[in-house]
From TrEMBL:
GO biological process: xyloglucan metabolic process
Protein name (record): Por secretion system C-terminal sorting domain-containing protein
UniProt source species: Roseivirga pacifica
Superkingdom as given in the UniProt entry: Bacteria
SUPFAM superfamilies tied to this protein: Calcium-dependent phosphotriesterase, Oligoxyloglucan reducing end-specific cellobiohydrolase
Cross-referenced NCBIfam families: Por_Secre_tail
Database matches in Gene3D superfamilies: Immunoglobulins, YVTN repeat-like/Quinoprotein amine dehydrogenase
Database matches in InterPro entries: Ig-like_fold, Secre_tail, WD40/YVTN_repeat-like_dom_sf, Xyloglucanase_GH74
Length: 1239
């Protein structure tokens, strides 16, 4: 619809924002700042308890995998391309160089003071944390010579080093070195302790860039010779011809490494082992050379483990959940030299294990422990016997208590260095047994979840991956989990309480968190609040811009999508559980929260929502809220009412019904004539819903761009804040074109992927696109940002496939996955959330870009419009509100209460510098729909008529606009055409109905496409108060128009032509005998008649034309053609076209390039034709189908055709009519005429 923006909201209480005046004036206006939010945080266990009560499961690696896999798979193959991570990194490294749009600033905080406003520049990015939250850590060790030196590896965040036992950390591996750290080890032999190794590639759990089986592929082993300060790739371990981040096309020996082990008893060389991909690899020279010593013939689907005793005895496991092949090796093995192996697998109990973990008892190396998915056993080397200790393990299907390794995602077994009876097992929780798991009586849960409570264990985190004991204090231990790194000084503590062991977090700048989503306040300058959902770690918030600020826990589970509006903070966990925490009187109390999920039951949520489920708000009126679901969008017009299940309305579409599509992304206009919602799905469909301000009840959205856009997973939609018809859609799948632009509101789309695709068709090593934002640059243009699997990119110039995207913050953000982007246009702030290294912030030169961010009806007769605020005491704002283009006297606050309708904008001032005008909001205090009071007969006045045209007069209840012929249709028993609409006044219109055919009732109806509104933008009611109709007495015979059909040109050399005869009303008894060629026409034959449109349009074929001259078709009046009233055709021809034959080709066979006819059946058809070609057309050839107007309908390249086989073509989406098909091969052709009839 073509309507102005308006806001109509139900009555509600306006939440005030505290405003303080600052003594600073120029030319009269007062300058203001706003006070920051006051935050009160809930205890973590309270939010975790709520999560548990709602039935939300803990982090689920399998569900996470399926979610990520569907985002990344190539739609053509259903698989993630082989080695795509390293391919895309190589492509970026060789194709891109960072180009910042303007010089950088050191402080990374954008807007300067008012005096220097004209000098605003882009800032360098800096990391904002979370300083105190760590990400998943599978690799962790301390320096045996100095326990203050710790090295830890984030699974997608690289190697980090601390020199003060975790009080602070520095990234040791470079941004271009592989960040998927799966194991790390120090060479503890004398003279070698400066040598460290780290392995890459995670088999289970990573969602930064999973492969077809959740693989985050690595490429080799890295080594440090300076005690972990710097690292270099051992080139022999990378795949041939590659470096650590070069193209990897196949699995190599070190693509996925589960464990590293060194034989410290061997002083010669460096005897080091790597376990992974169902194999054990051994090297005696630090991986300069190596051999597969176990599982050389195995498949690559299972995991492996390896440990070495102090005397050099080697133990290893290879999983058996997946088939290792006929010559494969699997189970548990032992070797005295690492070369020759003896299988020692227990006879029973370990029949189907993806992963089995080992631990040698440091006190008694005759004991070796084996942990499986739900079993634990101890092996005695000297007697070659196994003892089953599973009864004391406490396996549990409840991840919150007991042992649960989540399918091998999190598991280890460790024996205390001083006590063989004290054994630790890691799964979701850490368990300690002081009787070697002989029974469960002396088993305690000492980390992970809180066991009997629903929250986390204090100062720890679920999902255990690594445990190591300090040499200086064997009771001291380091723990690596999904929550980073933790330490305890007494892992043996047992005071009889629920939490016997005290842990301390060492996540102090250990920047390895994996964000799914991030949010900031879109409107308020210098609002420091930033929060987001983290994989494995819930949702955290900071209200400080310092990079070392402490972030506060505000929600649990796998942190998911978030939102920040003037009235609330929204968080969510996996499978769409959404929590709203209200903002009341500028206070946020996270103890006061509401579940606003449209579906409450956890099983139903899992069925209807994505693992990480999107939602959004209308940026013009943020109380309107939208939640993605399967085949629909839930919405509410006032989320402040905390709607629960059953209190949400639905947006659906016929194109979604039965599709099983999940809604995956939203985009909403900020400045357009309408507020428009776009949303996309996991199959690539994009939908549009207009007039959001009038949303009520269940509604249907329209599909857009179906012919242009690819099949794939829509990850982002951005609507230009300055142009609501300008939309960008991004896709995350590999193998397709990823970034698309529409400049006409979604009707047509074109690629703007540019240099982010290796090949124009989307194939190759172009990255996956995860997010998109558009930010005005203050000069009439925009910054366009995309978050990708290899970093953040920006352009200011969109030029189709020639678009040049420039990498941002390459030396800070690097090539990590940017999963989410948040912007604040008023100051040019950009926040990039990464999946591996936290969040980064920068600012760009934008001048001042004001937005009216909220319009709230107050008491039903008022609106409160709100403009950007400033939280910076050095940068206060002054305001000038504008109505219908004119300043409003005295309206100089950040809020404006409106009691009159009109178009409203705001202009901001900093010192003596003024901004551009904001977006326009049309305020409508008239919420009543106009009504069509009457449809009256005007000409003739009498009800009964035999006229072929009539005139109605329409009277509306008020002035209306957008009234034209498309708003009406003829109803009743007769046919007719809406010929003209004439405006007598703004509330009175005349409607002319002509070409009336048939007899009976004629009434005038509103069409389904009716677009009539009042001047306030309210849609016309479909009810009609009073209506008069005509009764048509049909005494007029039908008329006809004769036109050329094929060919379309008058002059032709063809020996066959086709006419089209169109009657003005339905007729019957039309046969070929009713036609003849006029006197003066050359000799020819009327050979066929086809009914194109039932009773109305016919095609007449004229063949056997043998000479030049006139071909003129006549309709006989002696026939029995008549209309439905029995009126016969009297010979009235309203228009007529003829053919002139010149230089005739009497037979197409005379054309030496013609090789025969194409057979088509059925013909006519509703649009699908089965074609059989002459035998000449075997192999490759092309065909084209054109309409009689010469417009191409389709063209196809047929490859490897077998003569005689049918080829199907489909033109069901084309209008009814006659089409010409022509097949060509090597200059020869064949053809056939196709007739499409829908009915």
């Amino acid at each position: 619809m073509n309507k102005r923006k308006r806001l109509i909201l139900p009555p509600l209480v306006v939440l005030g924002l505290v405003v303080f005046a600052i003594v600073h004036h120029f030319n009269g206006p007062s300058f203001y700042t706003k006070s920051p939010l006051k935050l009160s945080f809930a205890a973590p266990e309270e939010r975790e308890e709520f999560e548990h009560e709602e039935g939300t499961e803990s982090e689920n690696p399998r569900k996470r995998f399926l979610y990520e896999f569907n985002k990344l798979k190539d739609p053509k193959t259903g698989l993630i391309p082989e080695g795509i991570r390293t391919k895309e990194l190589h492509y970026i490294e060789t194709s891109f160089r960072e180009t910042l749009p303007l010089p950088s600033k050191a402080n990374g905080v954008g807007l300067p003071g008012a005096a220097n406003l004209e000098q605003m520049t882009a800032s360098a990015f800096y990391n904002r944390g979370p300083f105190n939250v760590g990400g998943r850590t599978r690799a962790l060790a301390f320096d045996i010579n100095n326990e203050n030196i710790l090295l830890a590896g984030g699974i997608s965040g690289g190697v980090w080093r601390s020199t003060n036992q975790g009080e602070s950390w520095t990234r040791a591996s470079k941004l271009d070195q592989h960040p998927a750290v799966s194991a790390i080890i120090q060479d503890q032999r004398d003279g070698h302790t400066n040598e460290w190794y780290y392995a890459t590639g995670e088999r289970s759990g990573n969602s930064a860039n999973i492969e077809s089986s959740s693989f985050y592929r690595g490429n080799g082993i890295y080594k440090s010779v300076d005690n972990g300060v710097t690292w270099s790739l051992i080139s022999a371990t990378a795949q041939p011809g590659t470096s650590g981040t070069d193209v990897v096309r196949n699995f190599g020996s070190f693509t996925l490494v589960d464990e590293l082990a060194i034989d410290f008893s061997n002083a010669a060389g460096t005897e080091i082992y790597a376990a992974g991909l169902g194999k054990i690899i051994r090297s005696t020279d630090g991986f300069q050379t190596f051999n597969t010593v176990l599982g050389a013939n195995n498949e690559i689907s299972n995991m492996a483990d390896v440990v070495v005793s102090s005397t050099g005895k080697v133990f290893a496991t290879i999983g058996n959940q997946f088939d290792n092949g006929g010559a494969g090796q699997e189970g548990v093995f032992m070797s005295d030299d690492g070369i020759s192996w003896t299988e020692i697998t227990p006879d029973t109990g370990f029949d189907e294990e993806l992963r089995m973990e080992l631990s040698i008892d440091p006190q008694n190396e005759d004991f070796v422990w084996l942990l499986g998915g739900d079993k634990i056993m101890r092996y005695t080397v000297s007697t070659d016997t196994w003892t089953n200790r599973t009864s004391g393990l406490g396996f549990s299907t409840n991840v919150r208590s007991g042992y649960n390794p989540q399918g091998g995602y999190d598991m280890y077994v460790k024996v205390h260095p001083d006590n063989s009876e004290t054994v630790f097992v890691g799964g979701t929780n850490m368990l300690r047994s002081t009787n070697a798991f002989s029974n469960s009586l002396e088993r305690d849960q000492i980390a992970g979840y809180g066991n009997t409570s629903n929250g986390f264990y204090p100062n720890h985190h679920p999902d255990q991956h690594v445990l190591t004991f300090l040499n200086s204090n064997s009771s001291g231990a380091l723990s690596g989990s999904d929550g980073g790194v933790h330490i305890t000084s007494d892992i043996l503590a047992d005071d009889g309480t629920q939490f016997p062991v005290t842990w301390q977090s060492l996540n102090n700048g250990y920047l390895t968190t994996q964000f799914y989503h991030v949010s900031l306040n879109r409107w308020n300058l210098r609002d420091p609040i930033l929060f987001g959902g983290l994989q494995d770690n819930g949702t955290y918030l900071t209200d400080s811009e310092a990079s070392n600020a402490t972030w506060s826990f505000i929600d649990g589970g796998d942190g998911a999508n978030t939102a920040y509006t003037y009235s609330g903070i929204f968080t969510s966990v996996q499978n769409g559980r959404i929590i709203r925490t209200p903002i009341v009187d500028n206070n946020v109390d996270f103890n006061n929260f509401f579940n606003v999920s449209p579906i409450v039951d956890s099983e139903e949520r899992e069925e209807n929502f994505l693992f990480i489920n999107p939602y959004t708000y209308n940026p013009v009126r943020p109380d309107q809220f939208f939640v993605a679901a399967r085949e629909k969008v839930f919405y509410t017009n006032d989320v402040r009412e905390n709607p629960s299940e059953g209190e949400w309305s639905e947006i659906t579409s016929t194109a979604l019904n039965g599709s099983a599509d999940q809604i995956t992304a939203f985009g909403i206009s900020v400045d357009s004539e309408e507020e428009v919602l776009f949303f996309g799905t996991d199959s690539g469909q994009v939908f549009k819903l207009t007039d959001l301000q009038s949303l009520s009840g269940n509604v249907s959205a329209s599909k857009v761009g179906s012919l242009d856009l690819p099949t794939g997973y829509v990850t982002g939609i951005a609507v230009n804040p300055k142009d609501g018809d300008h939309v960008i859609v991004t896709y995350s799948n590999y193998g397709i074109v990823s970034i698309w632009e529409s400049t006409d509101g979604g009707d047509n789309w074109s690629s703007i992927s540019g240099n982010l695709e290796e090949n124009p068709d989307g194939s190759g090593a172009g990255p996956s696109i995860r997010s998109v934002e558009i930010m005005p640059d203050g000069n009439g243009g925009s910054y366009y940002f995309v978050g990708t699997s290899v970093g953040l990119f920006m352009t200011q110039t969109l030029d189709g496939d020639n678009t040049i995207w420039e990498q941002q913050g390459a030396d800070v953000i690097g090539n990590v996955v940017v999963s989410s982007i948040a912007i604040r246009p008023i100051e040019g702030r950009v926040v990039a959330a990464t999946h591996g290294n936290g969040v980064f912030q920068g600012n760009y030169d934008v001048g001042l870009n004001p937005e009216i961010f909220c319009a709230v009806e107050n008491g039903g007769q008022e609106f409160v419009l709100s403009a950007n605020g400033s939280l910076d005491a050095n940068t206060p704002f002054a305001y000038q509100w504008i109505k219908n283009g004119e300043p409003i006297d005295g309206a100089n606050n950040s809020e404006l209460t409106v009691t009159e309708g009109g178009n409203y904008q705001v202009r901001l001032f900093i010192s003596q510098t003024e901004s551009a005008l904001s977006n326009t909001v049309f305020v409508n205090l008239d919420s009543e729909a106009p009504v069509l009071n009457s449809i009256a007969r005007l000409l003739p006045l009498e009800e009964e008529t035999s006229a072929s045209s009539v005139l109605f007069e329409l009277t509306f209840s008020e002035n209306v606009i957008n009234v034209d012929v498309s708003d009406f249709e003829v109803g009743g028993d007769v046919s007719g055409t809406i010929a003209e609409v004439t405006e007598l006044s703004s509330s009175t219109y005349l409607v002319d109905v002509s070409n009336i055919g048939g007899a009976g009732l004629l009434d005038l109806n509103l069409s389904s496409a009716m677009n009539i509104t009042d001047e306030a933008g309210n849609d016309l009611s479909t009810a009609i108060v009073s209506e008069e109709t005509y009764t048509v007495v049909d005494v007029v015979g039908p008329t006809a128009a004769i036109s050329r059909l094929s060919p379309a040109n008058e002059i032709t050399n063809q020996a066959e032509v086709t006419f089209q005869v169109a009657f003005n009303e339905p007729v019957v008894n039309v046969t070929l005998d009713d036609f003849e060629l006029s006197i003066g026409s050359v000799a020819a034959n009327l050979s066929a008649i086809n009914e194109v449109t039932a009773g109305r349009i016919f095609s007449i074929e004229v063949t056997e034309i043998e000479e030049d001259g006139l071909i003129d078709l006549d309709i006989l009046i002696t026939g029995d053609i008549e209309d439905a009233s029995g009126n016969g055709f009297a010979g009235t021809i309203t228009s007529e076209e003829t053919y002139t034959i010149e230089n005739i080709i009497t037979s197409i066979e005379e054309d030496p390039s013609y090789v025969g006819d194409v057979l088509a059946g059925p013909n006519p058809s509703t649009g699908i034709f089965e074609l059989t070609f002459p035998s000449y057309f075997s192999g490759d050839f092309s065909l084209v189908i054109v309409g009689l107007n010469g417009q191409k309908v389709t063209d196809l390249d047929i490859e490897s055709h077998v003569a005689g086989e049918a080829v199907e073509v489909d033109i069901t989406n084309s209008p009814d009519g006659v089409y010409m098909l022509r097949a060509e091969k090597n200059g020869k052709f064949a053809s056939v005429k196709l007739l499409k009839q829908s009915r």
